[in-house]
Amino acid sequence: MMSLPMPTLFGRATAIFDAHKTLHKTVAQLYDLCARLMSGRQVAAAELHALVGVFSVQLREHFSSEEEDDYFGTLARSSAEAGELVAVLHVEHADMRDGLDELARLVEGRASSGELAECLNALLDQFNDHEKKESRAMQQYLREGKECRQSPPVPPYSSPP
Hints:
The protein is mainly α. The chain has helices at residues 9-39, 45-66, 69-78, 80-108, 113-143, 146-150.
């Protein structure tokens, strides 16, 4: 099997943005779930477990992709300011992973609807704020044209013989 080259930063960003579509659908479903929890409407335990589980997997995979050297690493090396921002983004990832763990404990411990909604809403808001910050960093990076100057060209894909 032929090994394909790793994508450039632009390729990595495109893959991450594509994954955002699925993740953002899950986030929208979770905000709806929060609204139902806060209004006192019944939420099935199976739905809660499933949706929180899917979100946890998606978010952890998303963070792992972002933390690859060809994404965060490239951004961090582009300037001192970007390096500082990437360090902040890493800390936020760790905080949100802790938030996912806490949310799972609350779901498993059958916490009150209010506690679940508060924890989930805070985590979703933190994620949205984080994504806005990351998006601004990527936009700045691309505006400066660094992708074109620093990333080696990707050879065209060729079919195995």
